[in-house]
Amino acid sequence: MGKRKRESAELIKATQKTLSFAKLKNVPSSPRKMRLVADMVRGKEVFKALGLLKFSNKEAAAKVEKLLRSAIANWEQKNERKAENGELYVKTIFVDCAPMLKRLRTAPQGRGYRIRKRSNHVTLFVDTIEKNND
To answer: What is the pTM of this model?
Structure first.
């Protein structure tokens, strides 16, 4: 590995150490359904986001709520203090596609229709809100 590439990799590692995040892998729901829930909490303060997820009717909301609680716990572990109201926010949340299960459903006249059972990966970053006293 060259010098420039090594320095860049070390810089990325250093920034990753300061960030608090949580990952949820192989969730058995389609990425499209999960993105609706992810868009609902992106950029929100964490306790407000937890309230939104708690009272949402979507099945994916319960999984994202658990993931958000994990990310908050990771932040508390790194900073060795409890998160206070109005201190943290959902910095980034994104949903990626995971491997698809391909199944066959019987169809009329000896045919078979392909069913794609989709799944996804969710990554959630939390960060502190910086208040500028101007």
So the answer is: 0.85
The residue range of the domain holding 41 is 21-128
Answer whether residue 8 is part of any domain: no
pLDDT of 133 over the 80 cut: no
**Number of domains making up the chain:** 1
Tell me the residue ranges of DSSP E strands in the chain. 20-27, 88-97, 101-106, 112-117, 120-128
Cβ(127)–Cβ(88) under 8 Å? yes
The CATH number that applies at residue 89 is 3.90.470.10
CB 38 within 8 A of CB 90: no
Q: Residues 14-50: pLDDT tens digits?
A: 887 778 999 999 999 999 999 999 999 999 999 999 9
Helices 46-54 and 59-79, axial angle in degrees (round to 10): 150
